[in-house]
Write a structure and sequence with these properties.
Length: 263
């Protein structure tokens, strides 16, 4: 089974990066200006062979892999801006929420989450506390992060929550096994792959991350399943893993190099 899942975070206006989601320069590198996101959405809409949600993957139909749009962290822009833009373009999104931050400044509220579900969007967990890296958490902490966050959302929404995404992209098989043990049935990672797999009964889906400065044509290439665009993300992903392993300063330079070549 395959799905082309794109990973976005917050969408802000006027360079007000801290208006939605986690504050600071590092999170801001993953946020898009509203105008830029609108251009991404137009470009993706033009090429997406099939618009879908994770729900479709549990009743697969023949045809091209669906394109899934996901938004991590649970920043206020999910309700204030993103959901409207998606609906106008005929999409429904996946909003993955860090539940300790619900109802705090810059993040979605309980009432907004209920409304988003009523409008057909998928709400899922992005852990309780956004541990970084999550893969280094002990087993009990992992299960608690998934169990408690899903329970908080279920309480808010009045229905079970079975979808989640891994904070910080720190994925390991143990993180997925803990999600499965907590009753989750679909887990988005940040691994740039269209391939889905199953860990202990939980469907694990890779995603292609889009960051500030990425051109709309890159989003379109990824949404159309373009092999070169997908491989370029895979190369960067693997470089990142190597750079982390050796602890050097090599990654930013290599990442820039690969991105420049892929533009
Ligand atoms: Zn996150």
């Amino acid at each position: 089974m395959r799905a082309l899942s794109l990973l976005y975070h917050d969408v802000v206006e006027g360079g007000d990066w801290d208006a939605s989601g986690f504050p600071g320069a590092l999170p801001a590198a993953y946020k898009l200006e509203r105008r830029d996101f609108e251009n991404h959405l137009s470009a993706v809409s033009r090429v997406a062979a099939r618009r879908g949600t994770v729900r479709d993957l549990f009743q697969p139909v023949p045809g091209p892999p669906p394109v899934l749009l996901t938004f991590d962290d649970g920043g206020a822009s999910a309700y204030a801006c993103v959901a409207d833009l998606l609906e106008r373009a005929g999409w429904r999104g996946h909003f993955l929420v860090t539940t300790d931050y619900i109802d705090t400044p810059g993040f979605v509220t309980r009432a907004q989450l209920r409304e988003l579900v009523g409008r057909g969007h998928v709400i899922g967990s992005h852990s309780c506390s956004h541990p970084n890296p999550m893969s280094r958490c002990g087993w009990d902490r992992l299960v608690a992060e998934w169990t408690r966050s899903a329970a908080v959302l279920a309480d808010v929404l009045g229905e079970p929550v079975r979808v989640a995404s891994v904070p910080g992209g720190a994925f390991s098989r143990r993180v997925a096994a803990a999600a499965a043990a907590a009753g989750l049935t679909a887990l988005f990672t940040s691994e740039p792959t269209a391939r889905c797999r199953v860990v202990d009964g939980c469907l694990v889906l890779g995603r292609f991350v889009l960051r500030r400065g990425d051109p709309p044509k890159r989003a379109a290439a990824l949404a159309s399943g373009n092999l070169r665009a997908r491989l370029s993300q895979l190369v960067v992903w693997n470089l990142k893993k190597i750079a982390k392993a050796v602890g050097g300063d090599l990654y930013p330079a290599l990442s820039r190099l690969v991105h420049e070549r892929a533009r």
